[in-house]
Amino acid sequence: MDIISSNTSIDIASLNEKINRESSFVDVLSMELGKSIVGQKYMVERLMLALLSNGHILLEGVPGLAKTLAIKSMASAIHAKFARIQFTPDLLPADLIGTMIYNQKENDFAVKKGPIFANLILADEINRAPAKVQSALLEAMQEKQVTIGEHSYKLEEPFLVLATQNPIEQEGTYPLPEAQIDRFMLKVVVTYPKKEEEQLIIRQNMQLSDKVINAVVKKEEILNARKTVREVYMDEKIERYILDIVFATRKPEDYKLDKIKPLISYGGSPRASINLAVASKAYAFIKRRGYVIPEDVRAICFDVMRHRIGLTYEAEAENVTSEEIISEILNAVEVP
Fold first, then answer.
1. Cβ atoms of 246 and 273 closer than 8 Å
2. Mean pLDDT value of segment 148-154
3. Which domain covers residue 259, as residue numbers?
4. Cis peptide before 130 (omega within 30 of 0)
5. Are residues 145 and 44 in the same domain?
6. Is there a contact between 99 and 92 (Cβ–Cβ < 8 Å)?
7. Cα–chain-centroid distance for residue 168?
8. Which end of the chain is more exposed for a tag (fewer CB within 10 A), N or C?
9. CATH code: domain of residue 262
10. Taking each helix axis from N to C terminus, what angle separates 294-305 and 236-250, rounded to the nearest 10 degrees?
């Protein structure tokens, strides 16, 4: 079935030209990141998607998989302010957002802004800090503002939280609550590199000189690209396809998925539908296309949905993962 209406074909042609023009920085950024990151193309591509979609990203994986290095490298390649916050059990909300400090000379309180006032925030090992600190990020992530004392301060665009976390089975971790984890557009599970890639990693780390990452992308380029991403054409059939995927997590029985109904305690919220649509457009943008196809939706579905499906005790007892449930849904929902 054709997913582009005939009357939009002229617009699509001009949009493709615009995308080819404005997405040139994606290749430049990828090449620059390739200096320090070996392999992990999936993770790097997802970082690009978050950047283009104006959505926060959570990277989960065991220590040593270059999660922090990838985020730091991306920040170095962009002309933007970067802040790294190491989450630890003794961290306080004020260490994150800032606080009021008494000025003796002025005989008044002055605002000391915290590291959250940057463009790219690396929240390293976010689940090592208790809930009080995690929740301090909520207002910044959703409203793009921070309240200190009686005043609210707007955060400068682009503002992106790039968080890493250790698998929750590890000792000393505090699982992120549902409301917090839902703020992340993407949750990417980072896996081990291939043997050939790890051989290259060893060789690269044996070299005496460090690879220098140059700032090759301006903030304006990212902000312009974000506007163009929103212009990517999405047909009504694709919108319905996205809705079917999300609604299948809420009412599986409507899609002949009765067997997974007892495994789901709650499904994706409307935020899941919005993020699936925006991330699909960003994926099409990266692929130099002015319209979304079903393969775009399927490509990013796991990253958008895996942290938005609640599992029942029955699912945990049977060792069923949210990825398996998403696979069942994608196989059952009709593709346009």
1. yes
2. 84
3. 232-336
4. no
5. yes
6. no
7. 19
8. N
9. 1.10.8.80
10. 30
Residue with tokens 């790890």: 198
Q: Tens of pLDDT along 57-97?
A: 998 888 777 788 888 888 888 888 888 888 888 888 888 88
Same domain flag for 199 and 298 = no
d(CA 314, CA 312): 5
The pLDDT of 233-242, averaged and rounded, is: 93
At residue 235, what is the residue type?
A: D
Task: Answer yes or no: is 160 within a domain.
Answer: yes
As beta bridge partners, residue 110 has 101
Residue 6 lies in a domain: no
298/247 Cα distance (integer angstroms): 15
Given the structure tokens 């690009």, which residue do they identify? Answer: 48
CA distance 114 to 94: 7
| Backbone phi, psi, residue 88, to 5° | -135, 160
pLDDT at position 92 is 87
Q: How far is CA 140 from the centre of its chain?
A: 15
Contacts of 76 by beta carbon, 8 Å cutoff, 6+ apart: 82, 213, 214, 215
Cβ–Cβ < 8 Å for 269, 263: no
Residue-by-residue DSSP string for 266-323 = E---HHHHHHHHHHHHHHHHHTT-SB--HHHHHHHHHHHHTTS-EEPHHHHHTT--HH
Residue 293 — pLDDT band, cuts 50, 70, 90? very high
Contact 281, 242 (CB under 8 A): no
Which of 198, 186, 201 lies closest to 60 in space, CA to CA? 186
